[in-house]
Model the fold of this input.
Amino acid sequence: MDASRLNGLLRRVPSWAVYMCGLAPAVWWFALALNGALGPDPVKALEHRYGEFALQFLVASLAVTPLRRYLGLNLMKHRRALGLLCFAYAGLHLLVWLFLDVQSPAQILADIAKRPYVTVGMAAFVVLLPLAVTSNQASLRALGPLWRRLHRLSYPAALLAGLHYVLLAKGFQLEPLVYLAGIILLLLTRLRLPQFGRRARYISGE
Done:
C-alpha cells in the first residue's frame, strides 16, 4: 500500500476511536489489579504499567513529525489525541502513586524532595500540564503564535519522562535506556541544518 492511500485511511479514522482504543488498556489493567491478576503487588504493577503507557504515547506523539517528514506517513490528525492520551496515563500513574501506593501527604512531599526519580517525574508532569490544558482550538486561537512555542515544552517533558524511567530502574536495565535513547533520537530528527548543504556545495565548487 502506498503512502497516499495509507494516509487517506488514517485520515478517515475518527479521533474518538483513537481515544477509545487508547484508554481501553487503562480499564483492562485496572480490572486485572482488582482481580489480583498482577502479581503479589498489584498497586506497583498498575502504577508502573500506567507510567509505561504514558511514555509510549509520548514517544508516539514525538514520532508524528519525523514519520511525516522522512516516510511520508501523515498522523498529524491524531497527534493531539496521542498527546492527551499520554497526559491521561501520566495522570493515572500519578493518582495510583498518590492514593494507592504512598497514601501519606507527608511521605509524598518527602519523596518529591529526596528521591530524584520522583522529583524528575513530577517535573515532567508539571511541564505536561499546560500542554494538556491548551490542547484545544480555543487555546490555539487565543494564544496565536505563542501556542506553538508553548507546545515545544513537550521536548523537555519527554526528556524528563525518559530520565524518570531510567532513574526509577534498579540496577542496569536496558528497556529504560532504550526509551531514553529513542526520545533523544526523535528530538534530534527535529534539528535542521539548512546552511550545511549550501555551504558544502560552495566549498566543493558545485
Observations:
- The longest helix spans residues 42-71.
